[in-house]
Structure formats: C-alpha cells, structure tokens
C-alpha cells in the first residue's frame, strides 16, 4: 500500500545544507501498522512530511497504492502532535471532523454518517457541539483522530500524536488506536520517539539511524496480536524487544557522536 524507495532529503538554504535523510527504503502492506523510531533529530518528522507530500523529496519516491506522491494525496490522512494547532477553534467538533469530507465533496447524508460513526468510535458523541478549546488535550487529540478516521484514508500517518498528553491519557489513546486500527484496517505509519509505545503498537518497528538517516533495522514484533497495556507490557518478550530497540538507538546515537 505504501512504498518508500530510496527516499532522500536535503534541506538547503543560503550557507546551510542539512542532509536529513540519507536513503530510506521501506514498505507498509495494506492494513499493517508500522512504527518508526530513531534518535532525536534523525529525521522522523521529515520522513513523514515527505511521505505526506507536504515536503518535496530530494531523491527517490513514495507510492501509495502504486501511485507516485507528488503533493498531498487525497487518500492520506495525517495526525500531528500539535492537536491545538490542527483543529479550528471557531468550529465545533462536528464541523472540524466534517470539513475534509466537504472538501472530498461527499453528500450531506454520507458526511453525517461518517462524522457520527467516527465520533462514536472515539467516544466523543456527546462533545459534537463543543468547540475544541472547551475540551482537554486528550479529547482534542481524539477529535483529530476522529477526523482522520472519518476521512476513510487508505493510509494514516501519525507524527508523535501522543507526545503532548499525560501518561494515562496516552495509554488510553494507544488502545484507542489499536481498536480503530483493528476495526477499520487502516494502513498506518506511526512515528514516535517512545520505544515502549512503538513496541506496544507496532506489528513492525523500523529503527532509523542518525542523520543522514537510513533504516538500521526493520524488526517484526512477535507479541500476541491481542494487546493490553498490563498483560502485553509485562511479557518477558516485551522487555526483550524494548531492550533490543533501545540498544539499537543507543548504537545509532553513538555512531553520530563518533562522527
Ligand atoms: N526546515 C528545515 N530546514 C533545515 N533543516 C531542517 C528543517 N527541518 C528539519 N531540519 C533538520 O533535519 C534534521 C531532521 O529533523 P526532524 O525534525 O525531521 O527530526 P526528528 O527525528 O523528527 O526530530 P525529533 O525526534 O527531535 O522530533 C535535523 O537535523 C533538523 O535540524
């Protein structure tokens, strides 16, 4: 569904050249949930923005369902970390969720069904007429997730979506993502700096090196498919996988410090 082939990205401005992404090749199959982790500043956000067609690539290509990405593809939805900036404060929750569906030119009754279904799925039916600023941070991020799900994307991109919420809300949102992912079978690429979160959510975890970034490892997460915050995180295998990814990231950081 999503193919990233030899993707390269260099930021160039007068007097400054940053080779953010050396070369990344990776693919995500239909209905798969893949997490991407890497040391700070390794280019995770850059990768996601290139994949979303929000940044021009310097080389290589991204394909969604075989079609080359040259700008934001209509089949993709993105959830960013800064939910505060991604929702329109003057619109209600319902209007925020509905907006991209209007841009997709869906008929009114279909829009109504999708908005109601996605707000129900994230447990926010009662907040449909509230404005984002009347909601907690976790609820606002659920609105952003509902908006992405209502859009029925072929590919969902998430850029550290839970970095700004407290630990308990974060655990709830992680489980929400797993539930939605199971019921809607959306192909998902999830970027996080949190190793535990990556191992808990991902069916695969892709570990990136430091800039100029490449894929250090593409690790299959062989934990039971049914995941639960308490049971899964207490499995010895969870600890082994987390330790392995942690060591890989330390190794990546060590390399960059040697340079
Ligand atoms: N607009 C830009 N212009 C120039 N350089 C940039 C720009 N955006 C990012 N960079 C550089 O590209 C590299 C990768 O940045 P990016 O934000 O993608 O990393 P990240 O892995 O998402 O970081 P973090 O984990 O800290 O969120 C960094 O060296 C950064 O300074």
Structure description:
This is NitT/TauT family transport system ATP-binding protein. Keywords: ATP-binding, Nucleotide-binding, Transport. InterPro entries: AAA+_ATPase, ABC_transporter-like_ATP-bd, ABC_transporter-like_CS, ABC_transporter_ATP-bind, P-loop_NTPase. One of its GO terms (molecular function) is ATP binding. Helix 3 (93-103) crosses helix 4. The radius of gyration is 18 Å and the shape is globular. Helix content is 41%, strand content 25%. It is an alpha/beta fold and 259 residues long. The chain has two domains: 2-75 and 156-258, 3-Layer(aba) Sandwich (Rossmann fold), CATH 3.40.50; 83-152, no CATH class. It is built from nine helices and ten strands. It has a ten-stranded mixed β-sheet with strand order 5-4-1-2-10-9-3-8-7-6, with helices on both faces.
| Rg computed from alpha carbons, rounded to a whole number of angstroms | 18 Å
Q: Structural class from helices and strands?
A: alpha/beta
Mean of residue pLDDT values: 91
What percent of residues are in strands? 25-35%
Strand order of the largest sheet: 5-4-1-2-10-9-3-8-7-6
CATH architecture of the largest domain: 3-Layer(aba) Sandwich
| Ligands and ions found | adenosine-5'-triphosphate
How does the major sheet shape up?
10 strands, mixed
Pick out the low-confidence regions: none
Q: Supply the number of helical segments.
A: 9
């Amino acid at each position: 569904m999503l193919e990233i082939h030899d993707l390269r990205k260099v930021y160039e401005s007068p007097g400054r050249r940053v080779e953010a992404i050396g070369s990344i090749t990776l693919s995500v199959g239909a209905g798969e949930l893949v997490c991407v982790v890497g040391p700070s500043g390794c280019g995770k956000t850059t990768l996601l923005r290139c994949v979303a067609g929000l940044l021009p690539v310097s080389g290589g290509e991204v394909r969604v369902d075989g079609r080359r990405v040259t700008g934001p593809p209509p089949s993709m939805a993105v959830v960013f970390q800064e939910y505060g900036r991604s929702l329109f404060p003057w619109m209600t929750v319902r209007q925020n969720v509905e907006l991209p569906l209007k841009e997709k030119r869906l008929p009114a009754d279909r829009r109504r069904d999708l908005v109601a279904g996605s707000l129900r799925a994230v447990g926010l039916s009662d907040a449909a007429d509230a404005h984002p600023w009347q909601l907690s941070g976790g609820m606002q991020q659920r609105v952003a997730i509902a908006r992405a799900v209502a859009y029925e994307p072929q590919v969902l991109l998430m850029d550290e979506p839970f970095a700004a919420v407290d630990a308990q809300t974060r655990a709830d949102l992680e489980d929400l993502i797993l539930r939605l992912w199971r019921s809607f079978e959306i192909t998902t690429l999830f970027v996080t700096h949190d190793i535990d979160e990556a191992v808990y959510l991902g069916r695969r975890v892709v570990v990136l090196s430091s800039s100029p970034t490449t894929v250090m490892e593409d690790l299959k997460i062989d934990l039971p498919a049914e995941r639960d915050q308490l049971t899964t995180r207490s499995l010895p295998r969870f600890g082994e996988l987390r330790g392995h990814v942690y060591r890989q990231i330390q190794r990546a950081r060590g390399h960059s410090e040697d340079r």
